[in-house]
Amino acid sequence: MTTPAPTHSYTTESLISLTEITQSRDPHRIYHQLRLEHGPVAPVLLEPGVPGWLVMGLEQLRIITEREALFSRDARNWRDLNDGIVSPDSGLLPMMAYRPNVIGADQQEHRRLRQPLDDGVGRINHRALRRQVQRICGELIGHFAQSGRADLVADYAAYVPMLAVASLFGLDTRQGHELRSALIALFSSQTDSQVGNRSFEQILFDTLRERQANPTDDLTTALMTHPNLQDDPEVLQSMVVMISAGNETTTCWIAHTLYRMITDTSFDDRLRSGQLGVDDALDEVLWREPPMTHMPARYALRDIELGGQSIRQGDVLILGLSAANSDPALAPGGHRPANNRAHMAYSAGPHMCPAQDTSRVITRTAVDTALHMLPGLRLMVTPGEINWNPSPWTRCPTQLPVAFAVPHEISSPSSAHPFGETA
Ligand code: HEM
Fold first, then answer.
1. Separation of alpha carbons 251 and 159, rounded Å
2. Which of 119, 249, 252, 344 maximizes ligand 1 atoms within 8 Å of its Cβ, making it the mutation to test the pocket?
3. Which has the minimum average pLDDT: 52-61, 108-117, 120-129, 179-188?
4. pTM, two decimal places
5. What is the set of domains in the chain, with CATH numbers?
6. DSSP-derived secondary structure letter, 103
7. Which one, of 197, 338, 346, 193, lies nearest residue 275 by Cα?
8. Of 117, 197, 278, 365, which residue is most buried, by most CB within 10 angstroms?
């Protein structure tokens, strides 16, 4: 790994962009081509004129996520940013710019900031969360159930995670909606995203102030009283990171699972006949369509050879989580036993997602509730007509237009459906 290989020179015009991959009908075909051409680490474009490395090999992904002395999470090490190749108003920056939070920290500083998140998440009551998510889902469905039609992304999956995670922080539904609107611009990686960022933080700051006056049993209170967090800005940044990291990711997971169930009869049949367990079905989606298709980022702290490529100090490396899931090392011979959660959807190493169980409760409840309350779901367009969000990072369906039998009355979800909770 440490012997520098011959330097390759790539013109940025010849490189494929991350957004072209996420927009493609078949990203795995592109990963296959990239592997043939470049090996497990391929040069790509993050946006026009901004190159980076897409790390697709499992071994290389483990190296860059685990060896913090060689690969930093801190974007202030990004040479192209420091040299002005990335413009200050680039749509990449809301996801990638350094912030003084757990995401941008390495080693001991990371552990200090990470502990409050792990402690906070560890205190979440999954039964109470499930009931809360059922209530949120029931309300959303109530808005469109009588019409017999809906867009399960725009009317449903796009709302559930934000309202659920916001409620964990003590925000009510109205505040959750407001927070979601502010976050949309932030995640869009378009030029207005930095404006969205400011109002998003303001809403959370007001929540923190309110909770300081009236502490209670929620995540805001858990973070603001944690001994590792030194001041209000640190608490605020911890709130920002939890809420923003959980939103788009969980929306994508819900949307992809519903999409698979509606369009893939074998998937649906296996689930309904019990051949496929509920959690296995959710994991199958995480294997094929991990919500963070391409995760930013690590920055090389020195010149180094990785997967046959000469990485220069300051280069940016993107975690090819979806590509890595098809690395033969993860599923030798293409076979994966049931209950296999060795996928890379949550990444690896010290920055691995801390909210795996939380996101599973939200996703499972949202899918279960939709299937229970909206009988006879069918897609109103062909699967080929489904488009994907224009994002370098995620590959979420932009819409999922469906029709269903109008329910006689909106009843509470029971556990009769295969997606019924057992926890
Ligand atoms: C309630 C929902 C969620 C919350 C609150 C949440 C929270 C977080 C936080 C705080 C981090 C940063 C951890 C650190 O830097 O130490 C993180 C990282 C991450 N999360 Fe999540 N997350 C959620 C859902 C998801 C879902 C559904 C996925 C995908 C299946 C996911 C995938 C990831 C990935 C790939 C990382 C990056 C790890 C890295 O940089 O190596 N998260 N998440």
1. 8
2. 249
3. 179-188
4. 0.91
5. 1-105+293-333 (3.30.43.20), 110-291+345-423 (1.10.630.10)
6. G
7. 338
8. 365
